[in-house]
Amino acid sequence: MDTKVKDSKNPSGPVTLKSGHKVWVDRNLCIGAATCIAVAPKAYVLDEEAKAVILESADEDTIENIIESAKACPVAAIIIEDAQGNRVFPK
């Protein structure tokens, strides 16, 4: 994988974005549909197990777009909390 993951110890998160939001991918739910990548290609890539991992460049995307990418996931495998720890998606 030549793209840089945000946290090499926890490639699917949780990671904290510059917006203060915490994002992670539930690897047990992720089916590798790649809709998150279609919506937010700066934020995700699939690893060798076809599971979404969060890229360092996720901070270059807007939180609104990252939330849209989570909503696009057919199995709701992307979880987002705001800086206060409140669940943004899925509710």
From TrEMBL:
| One GO molecular-function entry | iron ion binding
Identify the stretch annotated as signal peptide in this record: none
Q: Name one Pfam family in it.
A: Fer4_15
Residues forming the 4Fe-4S ferredoxin-type domain are: 21-49
**Keyword annotations of the record:** Electron transport, Iron, Iron-sulfur, Metal-binding, Transport
Which superkingdom heads the taxonomic lineage of this protein's source? Bacteria
Does this UniProt record's set of keywords contain Electron transport? yes
SUPFAM superfamilies from the UniProt entry? 4Fe-4S ferredoxins
Primary role: Ferredoxins are iron-sulfur proteins that transfer electrons in a wide variety of metabolic reactions.
- What this protein is called in its record is Ferredoxin
User: Whose protein is this, by species?
Assistant: Candidatus Roizmanbacteria bacterium CG07_land_8_20_14_0_80_34_15
Write the lineage as a comma-separated list: Bacteria, Candidatus Roizmaniibacteriota
